[in-house]
Amino acid sequence: MKKYIIVLAAIVSFVALLSFSLKDHPVSDANDEFFQKDSIASVMAFKDVYKVLISPRCVNCHPSGDVPLQGDDSHLHSMLPQRGKDGKGINAMKCGNCHQATSMEGLNQPPGHPDWHLPPADMKMVFEGKTAEQLAKQLVNPKTNGGKTMKQLIEHADDGLVKIGWNMGEGRTAPPISHAEFKKAWITWIEKGAYAPGSNK
């Protein structure tokens, strides 16, 4: 009887430890592929990712408030449009009224995309003012990243609204690295464990 109790206790301890480990690490979602973890490579890759995410091209559509930002200095949008429930504006002031399917030609003309919008009100995905650690943790948490799995996050690097950041039209500074370099860093960060700088997770 004593032998069975010891075995049972060992099994319970193992299951508890495994559950804690899976819950604690960002890339252990049951729906995601297995990734080869390397905290150093992951954190190093995120340094390049972070440079892009806090550039005006990303921050301007991921503001802390409900008014999008504008320009290389990230000032409030001149017409003060509001986020709205779905992130596409409110009443007659919809994002798509000015931001057409394609970018308009000319200096500082509205950039375009068929689905131009901010993140929705119930999932704001704020980049503005976030540290690298805060942003990394936000990005891998389905409760704050739009419900995305790791596989979906990798695919998101090629999303049309992400890629338009490198083609915003005349008068806007592009992100500090190319989209190809960003995508490589983004995938490396995730596949090596999606570690947050300054954290052991």
Q: Would you give an account of this structure?
A:
- This protein has 201 residues and is mainly α.
- It has helices spanning 2-24, 39-53, 56-59, 95-98, 132-140, 150-156, 160-163, 179-191; strands spanning 69-70, 75-76, 89-90, 93-94.
- It starts with a helix and ends in a 10-residue tail after the last helix.
- The protein has a domain at 29-74 and 123-191.
- The strands form 2 sheets. It has a two-stranded antiparallel sheet with strand order 1-2. The chain has a two-stranded antiparallel sheet with strand order 3-4.
Tell me briefly what this model is.
With 201 residues, this protein is mostly helical. It has eight helices and four strands.
Give the secondary structure arrangement, pairings included.
Elements: H1 2-24, H2 39-53, H3 56-59, E1 69-70, E2 75-76, E3 89-90, E4 93-94, H4 95-98, H5 132-140, H6 150-156, H7 160-163, H8 179-191
Antiparallel strand pairs: 1-2, 3-4
Helix pairs in contact: 2-8
Strand content: under 5%
In one word, what is the shape?
globular
Class computed from helices, strands and strand pairing: mainly alpha
What's the alpha carbon Rg, rounded to whole Å?
A: 21 Å
Intertermini distance: 40 Å
Oligomer category: single chain
Tell me about the largest β-sheet.
Answer: 2 strands, antiparallel
- Tally of individual helices: 8
Helix content: 25-40%
- Can you count the beta strands? 4
Order of helices and strands: HHHEEEEHHHHH
Strand order of the largest sheet: 1-2
Whole-number mean pLDDT: 86
Spans of at least 5 consecutive residues with low confidence: 2-32
